[in-house]
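Follow-up to my post from last week.
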Amino acid sequence: MTTDLRTTQETTEPYGEGTPDLSSARPRPVSPSLFRRRLRSVVKHVLLIGLSLLMIYPLIWLVVSSMKPNEQIFTDLSIFTTDLSFDNYIQGWDAQLLPFHVYLLNSSILVIGAIVGNLISCSMAAYAFARLDFRFRTITFAVMLGTILLPFHVVLVPQFILFREMGWLDTFLPLVVPKFMATEAFFVFLMVQFIRSLPNELYEAARIDGAGHFRQFVQITLPLMIPALATTTIFTFIWTWADFFGPLIYLRSPENYVVPQALNMFIDGQSTSNFGAMFAMSVISLIPMFIAFLIGQKFLVKGFAKTGIK
Amino acid sequence: MSSLGELRTIAKRSKTDPGQPQKRRKYRDNMAGFLFLVPWIIGFFVFTAGPMLVSLYLAFTNYNLLQAPRWTGLENFTRMWGDQRLWKSLEVTFLYVFVSVPFLLVLALAVAVLLDRGMRGLSFYRSVFYLPSLMGGSVAIAILWRQVFGYEGIVNGFLSFFGVQGPGWIAHPDYALGTLIVLNIWTFGSPMVIFLAGLRQIPDMYYEAANVDGAGKLRQFFTITLPLLTPIIFFNLVLQIIFAFQNFTQAYVVSGGTGGPSDSTLFYTLYLYQQAFNTPMQMGYASAMAWLLVMLIGGLTAVNFWLSKYWVFYDD
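User reply:
Got it. Predicted complex:
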């Protein structure tokens, strides 16, 4: 006890009178560093808010412009206006050959098909790679990962020829059937990562109770990997909804067009230059993506961080 | 662990024990493994491996869908050598990739570092920055971009504020590609999210120790954050290069499918698409182009991996 006191006295003493420069350094840092931290945080927020505005401004402008009369869109570029109406939406809905809900419906069919396909096929493959012990597992897994990096252009022409031979051109089949074959390898990878993190004890218990692989898959794995399934669902939704290249190649007649193609028609026939209508339908096309993003944010950010795919 | 990390481990493992004659190990689940993989196996052979072989064959033929493919040997490749538009499309694509990807990654990293370590409003900022990367590939955004950078668009509206009359960026051969580069940088949110996840992996104690030693924030960034983040920087770099090489929709929509004005936005993939699907459908030539793309991307990725030895710091 006494020795303790002495040592503390000894250590504090030099700061007391002996060395003034140190004594001033000791109590002081609290306030300047606090001030500097505050300042730093303010600067940070100003920077980030500025950048946010810069990023989001075009989107806000799009939404506001979609509600302005055509002649005002480019004469008044500001986003502050009182003269808003939904006329462009009413007009844009019927601006193309077919009413816009046809394209929305087509997109929805495509999206649902892709989601169901990805969920079933990717989860099956992922279960095999993550939990099962079979021959060629390492090599098939490496090949599967490799296909993530493979540019799909290399299979584009033969796939087109194949689907043409099968008479699938101008149907949704070329865009949906491959999803039932676990061709979207990054979702397989995402799910593999997830299944690997599940506790082994669960599976041991199930095995002792006599559950085969089918039941281990359906009754244990699937319910537990709902977060990974949700991530897959939302990513598939957003990507399929926005995909333009696939439909451009396979969907030929306007009654099969999906939303991105319908939007692109606004540009092709821009002699009319009905910008308001074009903007209105662009907003319509972004709304489902935005909602999916809001609902799935948590999953997206998490799943995304795991595989690192856009 | 990332998919690249995974591949690296597999590669390493196979290198360290070079296929030791492992006494034919028994595999527990051969049958079940096969059954669960049936969809993937079919998909792999029918939609990936098979088509790859076919496209390799077609690359040496002349094929327009109507007549049977005619073997022409190396003709497609010699034709590529003399194809001015192909060279132009390579120039456009390389410019696009090598300008936009570094900007994109630096911005993603800078914002991620700013956002790190429990700052207030983190999830709000993250959402705002992440949202554009999800929408960036859509036709709606490409349409928006045409107007933002149009003659009467917001960019020029902003410039006129300072008395500058900007050009019609989209319609100008010198600037059209620039607008697409900006669009790609606009999607920095996806690598940013990966960086954020990586930053969270760095143990706090490193920073605490650095604080005790009196290292400033900048020094901490360069001696702790950056080295420990190099695997993730590498991962993002590889992926973003691969993605950027394959971008298509924005160039297609912004140029109305032409790659114009005067081929200034003729991405390689867009030119490939034109060759394959515009009459006369030159499917053989397009296949040869696709294989050149694979070789380019594969080559660049290999160079990246090779260079990574010199700057990527792995903990293990």
